[in-house]
Amino acid sequence: MTHPHTRTYWLEHAWLDTHVEPGVAVEAADGRITAVRTDVPAPPPGAEILRGLTLPGLANAHSHAFHRALRGTVQVGSGTFWTWREVMYSVADKLTPETYHALARAVYAEMALAGVTSVGEFHYVHHAPGGARYADPNAMGEALIAAAADAGIRITLLDTAYLSSGFGQPPTAHQLRFSDGTAEAWAERCSVLKERDHARIGAAIHSVRAVPADQLETVARWAEERRAPLHVHLSEQTAENDACREAHGCTPTQLLALHGVLGPRTTGVHNTHLTAEDVSLIGGSGTGTCMCPTTERDLADGIGPAVALQNEGSPLCLGSDSHAVIDLLEEARAMELDERLRTRTRGHWTAAALLRAASADGHAALGWQEAGAIEAGGLADLTTVALDSVRTAGPLPRLGAETAVFAASAADVRHTVVGGRHVVRDGAHTLVPDVPQALAQAVDALRG
Ligand SMILES: [Zn+2]
User: Fold this and answer.
1) Dihedral sign of CA atoms 421, 423, 427, 433 in order
2) Is the pLDDT score of 83 beyond 90?
3) Phi and psi at residue 169, in whole multiples of 5°?
4) Residue 121 pLDDT
5) Which of 222, 273, 331, 389 is deepest in the core (most CB within 10 A)?
6) How confident is the model at residue 194, as a pLDDT?
7) CA 233 – ligand 1 centroid, Å
8) What are the beta bridge partners of residue 28?
9) Which of 271, 289, 283 is nearest to 208 (CA)?
């Protein structure tokens, strides 16, 4: 017996975590999968047809939406992470709740077109330039939550504590709008944010540079009390490690461990320059690792020890971070290809493991444990990759996962379904009519 609000999808090929299954019918009601039937060789009457390989929806676990405005312009000249940061601050200076909403709506629409169904927004541009509070002190966070709704994707707003320019130093002029003054004030502001159907609230510590050691526990406790995800930029740069050793006589990972920040609901972002003991602390505590390889290579950060972290018990998730490109398949493939270059051997990450990082483990890191698998009871979030494009035609369908990870790109995403709603159909966004134009206008508004 079929419920009147039940929708049926017929998946030409489905990725069921370990293998490609041909001919799968998925029934969904009220945004959730209610049944998965295999051995369905033809579409049932009235079914939505998803031709290609359908994956569980992809999770982009680390985003700073406004960095999208830097695309291209930061590829001229030379420099380091730190010189790039100066350019990034000049864009941050120009954001208002209105311009940020417009930009994030377009960026999240670009993500939907790339098959992303959930984004983790690591959000620290809280206040007006100079630090004045908006009438609603959460106006910027609310703009991001609204932007995700307008683009049809889920968001975990990882509201970020950012209080210091580094180890006892007050915020710089650029950073004043990031700071709540104290972790207590940060917690008070965040506590007002409300979760919605498409939005969850998590916490973030910008880095051990930006939150004084004696205030780390306040942020960790806030997340603990709410069972909320807690993210932290960790050892992206050796300069951070050096300054931390100077100030505290230990590594950033050791400092986080000492102050109760590590644990299974915590995700370290980048985890690039770690000692063997750091790897054990992160893995042994069940802390997750979010790698952002397209950004890490763009910023000349280095290659983190993701394989060793995984072996020690740290689950991997992926993020497009600075949005040099937005393509979770490219992030996934970079994990394996970077290891190949470093080790001159192949076979560190399987396509299956990388798809798990791009979906189930990414969702878990963002507090959406019920997403990331095509199974009854899960959220009806699906991403379909074409297997008949110029990039993907040829391989046997049973190699669909390997084809998607190692040959496809965001341009091959044909359908994105979020909570049973078709947000991208046949490569076109159904809610934002002209995504390139929306991006161009939103970026232009921040120029000059
Ligand atoms: Zn980041």
Assistant:
1) positive
2) no
3) -90, 140
4) 98
5) 331
6) 97
7) 6
8) 7, 33
9) 271
